[in-house]
Amino acid sequence: MRLGSGLLLAMIFLGISGNVVGETAGKQTQAPYLLEFYGKECHWCDVMHERVAKLEKEEGVKVEKYEVWHNPENAKKMEQYNKRPNGGIYCGGVPYFVNTKTGNRVCGAMEYEDLKKWAGIENKK
Questions:
Q1: Chain mean pLDDT for the chain
Q2: Pick from 35, 56, 33: nearest CA to 106
Q3: 3-state DSSP: the chain helix, strand, coil percent, rounded to 5?
Q4: CATH number of 32-118
Q5: Which of 3, 77, 84, 105 could share a disulfide with 88, CB 3.0–4.6 Å?
Q6: What would you measure as the largest C-alpha separation in the chain, in angstroms?
Q7: What pTM does this model have?
Q8: Which residues touch 16 (CB under 8 Å, ≥6 apart)?
Q9: DSSP state of 59
Q10: What are the residue ranges spanned by the domains of the chain?
C-alpha cells in the first residue's frame, strides 16, 4: 500500500493542492489572495469599497472582505495578518489590505492606481 499516492489523491479531491479551490466549466478558480479588513461604519472603508468593486470588475480579481468591528472571528483573522515577526503590528485600524501572494500591506485608504499596484496589477500603457 502506497500511503503517499493516497494522500495526494485526497488532497486533490479536497481541493488542498495549491490554491485551487474549485472548478467551474473546466476552469479552475483560485482561492482569494487579496484581503480587505474593514469596519461597517468606517467612512474610508466605504470609499475603498467602491474602488475595490471597480478593481474586481475591471481586472477580474476577487478581494475577500472581512468586517472586523462587529465580527469577533474576522477581528481575530485580522490580528493574525496584522502581526509583525518582531511582535509589533502593521496597521492600527481599518481599512487594512493584505496581499498574501506578495506580502504587500496597506493601512488606510488609497487611490485606485495604488490599489492596483497593491493587488499586483501592472498598468497597461
A1: 80
A2: 35
A3: 40, 20, 40
A4: 3.40.30.10
A5: 84
A6: 59
A7: 0.73
A8: 10
A9: H
A10: 1-31, 32-118
What residues contact 40, with CB distance under 8 A and at least 6 apart? 67, 69, 70
Residue 83 in contact with residue 92, Cβ under 8 Å?
Answer: no
Residue at 124: amino acid letter: K
Q: Is 36 helix (H, G, I), strand (E, B) or coil?
A: strand
Give the model's pLDDT for residue 32: 72
- Residues with Cβ within 8 Å of residue 83, at least 6 apart in sequence: 89, 90
Query: What span, in angstroms and rounded, lies between the C-alpha atoms of 36 and 51?
Result: 12
Cα–Cα distances (Å) from 32 to 20, 24, 85, 86, 100, in that order, read 10, 15, 23, 27, 9
